[in-house]
Amino acid sequence: MKSGFVLKGDICYSRNPNVLHTRQDGYLVCEKGRVTGVFEQLPERYGDLPLSDFGGKLILPGLVDLHCHGPQFAFRGLGLDLELLDWLEAHTFPNEAKYRQEAYARTAYAMLVEELRRGPNTRVCLFGTIHLPATLLLMDLLEQSGLVTMVGKVNMDRNCPDILREESAAASAADTRRWLKDCAGRYRNTRPILTPRFIPACSGELMRELGQIQREYHLPLQSHLSENPKEVAWVKELCPQSSCYGDAYRAFGLFGAEVPTIMAHCVWSEEEELSLLKERGVWVAHCPQSNTNLSSGIAPVRRYLDRGLRVGLGSDVAGGCHTSIFRAMADAIQVSKLRWRLVEDGEAPLSLEEAFYLGTVGGGSFFGKVGSFEPGWEMDALIIDDAPLAAPFPLTIPQRLARVVYLSDDRHIVAKYVGGSRIF
Amino acid sequence: MKSGFVLKGDICYSRNPNVLHTRQDGYLVCEKGRVTGVFEQLPERYGDLPLSDFGGKLILPGLVDLHCHGPQFAFRGLGLDLELLDWLEAHTFPNEAKYRQEAYARTAYAMLVEELRRGPNTRVCLFGTIHLPATLLLMDLLEQSGLVTMVGKVNMDRNCPDILREESAAASAADTRRWLKDCAGRYRNTRPILTPRFIPACSGELMRELGQIQREYHLPLQSHLSENPKEVAWVKELCPQSSCYGDAYRAFGLFGAEVPTIMAHCVWSEEEELSLLKERGVWVAHCPQSNTNLSSGIAPVRRYLDRGLRVGLGSDVAGGCHTSIFRAMADAIQVSKLRWRLVEDGEAPLSLEEAFYLGTVGGGSFFGKVGSFEPGWEMDALIIDDAPLAAPFPLTIPQRLARVVYLSDDRHIVAKYVGGSRIF
């Protein structure tokens, strides 16, 4: 059983989008992997717990990445001169095909996992590839890292090159069942998540099979939605009976409601799709850098927040180049300003507080009580030595947070806790 | 006299916007601070020159920042929730007023100069403040750093708080002359540049004085142009006789032609202003991150390139948070994609090659033959150890450059040469 402990430092966290809670020289008490509370003075009853004094350093909740493609880390930063569908054909599919080879997968995934371990994210939802051994290998490495993750073997049986197309819906489903059997009981911190790539790559038959598997195993699900105008038009052609892209997932019982679901992007979601996302409690993974790099557009996040949708942030590596959700926070603020200026001046830009909320509580809620230091919440924490980001005048904790969001890198992270365990 | 030397490594540079020149395991020969040539095999006649073997590392030209506010480095990343004019009032002016105090200026500028020294830029055009001692202090520190820079004592005599307003046009001009006298003969690598803040902060009388000083001293000039819609509208009110914002500078003989001139931003320049920029050979400093952070918009850089305008990149710290022009390259590509998607699909996004050109040759041309490894050009070079950015498969030199642009930081820079001198 995990024992209790106390962290001392400059604590900063969110519990709603508009307010930062801060406590200079405060005490964060953790017991059994969960937060007991944040205190100005350490209550006597915790006086016997071991205390780590991070005086002068920031203590922040761990960050949550709701959308990352594990195999694509290998080619991040490359080939970013194409739009989504052409980019998939030219770069993504050929690169993902390499994960048939276990030796390659081992090398590539080790690089990814080491980056994730050292970075500021404590929880990540990842796409693997169609390949069973490689996906298990990724899960093994993630388990060893101490991060808490959900990982999906990808399903795709149409509209992709032979080398990456599963033989049939039945074969894809059988592989998925085999994968779930292999996962069972194997991990403490690594959960499988159903991962149909997106409607264009999944036949109706495959989606029905996945609906069946979902009902049997009660798995969460992740996929893509309304990322690029050409993709949206293509789905309209492929599913003429569906009233919107989201409705095409819904038709197979794979769009939220009883199925905890993440849909990445939602850049071009219109009224009906927004209502469906809201009704069915789907998490939107907002991936601002990817939507920029692939010329997809700028998602109307202000509208999502106003409607009370569930929203978190995603790196979408390798549409995005950066795994850090600090970067995604900065990107989210920045693109929201361009949207306000160039598209819709009724939608106010995101504030730093809102972006911080999205990257902690917003995405964390997909994992449960994660992303804040409220009592009873799982204790994911980053210790940040922001002294190298100091100004020639004193900074408040919110100002120091702003510096960390815009300017920090992995050098500044001196310790990292996930679910109450220190992973470095 | 600087002696000659040879650098060996993987060389990559630009001489026009569309082509990267690369030479794996090549030799870069430097004599008297200038490039002699790039060779596949080292010619015998250079066999006696000392050779530094940077095998496996990238050798790139130094980067050029055409627009940076020295005093604003202190508050980078803070207060980015306002538009330009409100941001100047709330954050910039109060922060710049602090540079009256030399002790503060010394601390703050030392932090900036150390960041610049360690970063990838080798040439920078900087705004100081109105303060003489602080501006000389900044110049002293820059001179010690080994960077080549142009620095301006700022002129501003209206529309700003008392604490930062020069007493009168005459007082501002007198201070400027005193500053130029103090600079004379003092530096090898640090040049003064005339720096009227922008039309709203400079009276007509002051602009006439500066025109006179410019003609006497033959100084280059830097200022701001058409950054924000409200600013543009304000200039229209202030200068009803001018046909556009640029024309307001021109009226005082301070808009290019015989005066080498940088105008930062040009986000909202219309047809007439573009023609004026072109005719008069003005350099546009494109500052994509600042234009995003301050919700200014996205400058139509494709249009500038198509018309043959002179364009370089600017960090615009602290409208931008990052001093590195690698970051400005990535930002320039990214915002050009959003502009293509959201504003004008006739303007193709920038390529990596184009962004690299802008951040090297494009800005470097303001300093002379700077930013390339063509024979006779000044030898500014970065040695980049990009091994930590490796992929699980071999990368070409252009792919490695892409990684460096999107993902590198100062850790990756292992040596830096400016004008043929190694500064670390």
How would you concisely characterize the structure shown here?
2 copies of one chain form a homodimer. By secondary structure, chain A is α/β, with parallel strands linked by helices. In chain A, 36% of the residues lie in helices and 23% in strands.
Your description of this structure?
The structure is a homodimer of 424-residue chains. With 424 residues, chain A is of the alpha/beta class. Chain A folds into 2 domains: 5-61 and 371-422, Urease, subunit C, domain 1, CATH 2.30.40.10; 63-367, TIM Barrel (Alpha-Beta Barrel), CATH 3.20.20. Chain A is 36% helix and 23% strand. Chain A is built from 13 helices and 17 strands. In chain A, the strands form 4 sheets. In chain A, strands 3-2-1-4-15-16-17 form a 7-stranded mixed β-sheet. In chain A, α8 (271-279) links the parallel β12 (261-265) and β13 (283-286). The radius of gyration of chain A is 21 Å and the shape is globular. The two termini of chain A are 19 Å apart. The interface between A and B is large, with 48 and 48 residues.
